[in-house]
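Example complex used in Figure S2.
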Amino acid sequence: MANEAVSSGVSQEALDIAKKQSTLRYQIVRNKASYFMIAPYFILFFFFTVLPVLMSIALSFTYFNMLEMPTFVGWRNYIKLFLEDDIFLISLKNTLIFAVVTGPVSYLLCLLFAWIINEFKGKLRAFLTLIFYAPSICGNAYLVWNLILTGDRYGYLNGILLKLDIINEPILWMQTEKYILPVLIVVQLWLSLGTGFLSFIAGLQTVDKSMYEAAALDGVKNRWQELWYVTLPAMKPQLMFGAVMQITQSFAVADISINLAGNPSVNYAGATVVTHLLDYGSTRFDMGYASAIATILFLLMVGTNKLVQKILGRVGE
Amino acid sequence: MIKRRRRFFRRKEKQLNRSMAVNTLLFILMFICGIFMVLPLVMIVNNALKPLDELYQFPPKIFVRNPTLENFTDLFVLMNDSWIPFSRYILNTIIITGLGMVGHVVVASLAAYPLAKHNFPAKNILFSMVVLSMMFSWTVTQIPQYLIISWMGINNNYLALILPAWSFGMGLYLMKQFMEQLPDSLMESARLDGAGEWHIFWKIVMPNVKPAWLTLAIFQFQQMWGNTGSMFLRDEQLKPLQFALQQITAGGVARAGAAAAVTFIIAAVPITFFLICQSNVLETMTTSGMKE
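Predicted assembly (609 residues):
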């Protein structure tokens, strides 16, 4: 067990000795170099991420208005969330719809476009990557949609639809309950070629080219088979990474909702868990409640992640 | 026909299993989607070139009719008028973005290597903590983080932005995933030659995962560049360019022209960085055929 990588080049006897010495203490000393290498990161990680997260979870059991000291309230925040807060339930429903629709679709789009772009070469390839990554790199590029979705007849979408005689009067896209969620989903999909997409592009680079030739000899007939049997299994680590990023993004949708539909949106049609959290955290200064929302969201993502990792484990089988 | 395919697609070997019909179909698909995706870029460029009357034209048009560089000259006048010399903001940005990015890539890669390729106690727990941490809403951890930074006494200091950036979870995860793919034999042979772990890390692991850290550099650059630092930095002398530029944008109607130029610059810098990194990702492709 101890350091397989090191000992596999050594004789069997040496390996036995290593096994005898595989106590915890011995292993820690033995792997000194590893600990030195991870130390800088994990020390910072502990202070700037682990501690704040633990403090937030602790705060979720308190009432904390950021002026007075937090007071312990037990499970009250959680009980209120599920039993009294109707808007939370609406926002939870919206978030789940968002996640179920945009999560898988965005993920597949990232993969599809990365894979197609990978077929091009040189400058053209870098250029295409830029074009598809553009919405993610231009900061708040989604504000473009404000122009497209303007509710009067000068909004681009209304203009086009009026010209084509599909509608008779302009539609107030972002003020009409039934349009808000679908439109936000479209905008989110448009924004989806971000982190996952670029990591797939980089991941496709690391697939060994000779594997394609070998696969062709083994009877892989077309590009789809090649994708399933060669490319995807070879980039499994990137697929896992992309999935986690996708989960964190699709469950945490908030900015586009706030900027396009407003917070609160008409009849809370665009409310998501994170907009609800922001409402309590930065508008009502009820940090304890906001932390409880964050904790629930966290559990939701962790559960989804477990499920998705299980599914991805079967790629290429 | 074969000749044409060669021009568009990368290498002859990659022509295995490709049909022209599907190639064409995919190309058309890419083209249509591409138009939608490039829309914000087109608008940013056009807006930056529009004279004031066109910016306020109603209904708005996407394309500029009388392109002018007025907006940029306006912006430079405003920059020269600023309370703190503008070069100071630029210097701050270079420090914050540069250190935040380079430091994160180094620190995260350094931690990712043992997690991917060594076996040691507590390895899995540490790694899952990093992955899980990305799922906790950043909005609520901000306040505890602020308290910790104040407690450390690095408030109103570049470090308040740089140090947390070094420990972002995504970078470690990304690097670890790529390093996992490296064949063990690559490192073993170096070990047999007597190379230490640090040497292996710098000379063997990092060059082989160049696409990964170039990609990470893009993410981190974007993150740091977009940070106004207003949560931690109080002194005007310490604030980054992003802050100064957004102040100009906040100037209202009279500054709409300069604001359009600002939007252009805010987008143009990361795009330039993106293109530099992305074209280097390509180069590695052709040179690092040394994977097993």
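Chain A has two domains: 1-30, 82-312. Chain A is about 70% helix and 0% strand.
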